[in-house]
DNA sequence: CTGAAAGCGCTTACAG
DNA sequence: CTGAAAGCGCTTACAG
């Protein structure tokens, strides 16, 4: 194939001339319109190839008033749950011909507002938003006024009228807590209390309701406020271990915190699962490779990302379709940090 | 502020009319040109605000032939090193008025080629590329023919004429290996051999050269091929532990592999640092929270990302500036997985 | 199934 | 310091 000296500079007009058709026809061919006769389409495609033609999306976007980019604004990429979600979403978008404009807000709502404006200027076709903590709910109204289709993920904006894909945080934490109860624990702590984070509120509710349903009294010194990081998990369990009356098990808000917890337990010469049971939530890949491997609740990060993309693209196509609110079903993954293996061993006849 | 019914639909012409100036002047104001009298600029800005004006980047891109998006194509976001790098780069780009078009290739060169084409169509102003394994070196030529400024990160394309930001992998692994030698080890394994990954080749060289310089014979059964994942690290150490003649220490290609190694060691009831020493490379955040905490070589992921953005933006401004090739200096971070704490304890007078 | 024409909203010389 | 004019490369009714 001989590339023209103008490689990359050819326009639709050049193709039209080379192929002996009008530029309208070229445009139709480039967009795979069924209106064009196959033979003509072939001629056009060959000419485009020969000229080293590159489609100019800026021109198309200007003309159409929208683009083939989708904005993805994520609160915390240091939490691999969101990275896994991003990977799922990005792949799915790509398969549908969209490309991802990414921004990481790091839970900074000022920054979030700034990047959203920027993405509006880019004429993003839609937005997948994992809102930063403390995002004002009016953001939903703003986005609608902008006419930007969006779906919120994991955290909602408390807006009835917008699409949301999340996980059943309440059932998830209940599953985890009940598992500890089933293993015989009654002294169960919760790390990650934060009354201004709706997800934390729900997870704490799941923990407390589970205890109540099992007639276990809630012991408030065992409910520890914590930011969402490994380091803060570490600090929280340290406080718990320093208590005169220690819990025998701990439910963590998420895996990130649980990983910090496991680390500190190890540092203190203790063994999670034997000396104290630990469960997390989210089911990040890393959880399976902790020491000991972390019992957690899989929230299906990739699936959430894929679903969010899919729902968004449907919303883009059809703004008037019914609102989608979907909570994925959590799934308990039992590993060793909860001590389930030790217990079953001591119950088996061949236990030493 | 009263928003017009046309919120978001106003153009530069509407502003011009409202402010009583020409649209050229409006354009200059929007681009913060110093040519416009402050008073005029103020009038224009007020009018824009009042009309709910949104800058249309598609139009600007079409006219200018370039955009304010920067493409970032990353080989492996399941490795948090690259996530950290991405975070650093994205933040820096945002500060400079650029927004990030992201794609995750997952080491798939077909997919990589596809997304690069797509980013070309978007008229990305530049590209930060962490190339997929086995990327043909001709990619550098292609990108140049496209006229797309780019900088490769971590892995180079073996092209003298293009910018590259990486880490001194050779010195890094040497640092790690020498640390084990200093602790008294002579039976040191290497996990992560891959002769078709240039980074692995260099790291293995660092390991081997360090042994040689210390007059330690290289024992090839202790050099284990492995893919770059936690699971593959797990499998590799299992093979090593099954050997009749086991090594007493192991250098891992990177932290991802090391995390898998630590997990398997724990699963076998052994303790890293006491029963076998482990060191990683990269210095991901997670390394500090392993059990035991992982001794590793910090390669400064955020810094690499920031530097890559900075160099790219300079390249965009000045295509003829001298080529930049920069290797960041690695830094050993001693934690417990290498057993340094145990050794120093046994050397201290108050050891039990 | 194909062509001629208008226009998307900017920026950029150029003239004053 | 400001204005009039041209044009970036597409898509989309519309007419045939």
Automatic annotation (TrEMBL), chains A, B:
Q: HTH lacI-type domain: which residues?
A: 10-64
Q: Pfam family of this protein, just one?
A: Peripla_BP_3
Instruction: Provide a Gene Ontology MF annotation, just one.
Output: DNA-binding transcription factor activity
| Entries under InterPro entries matching the protein | HTH_LacI (IPR000843), LacI/GalR-like_sensor (IPR046335), Lambda_DNA-bd_dom_sf (IPR010982), Peripla_BP_I (IPR028082)
Question: Which keywords does this chain's UniProt record carry?
Answer: DNA-binding, Repressor, Transcription, Transcription regulation
Protein name in the entry: LacI family transcriptional regulator
Query: Which taxonomic lineage is given here?
Result: Bacteria, Pseudomonadati, Pseudomonadota, Gammaproteobacteria, Enterobacterales
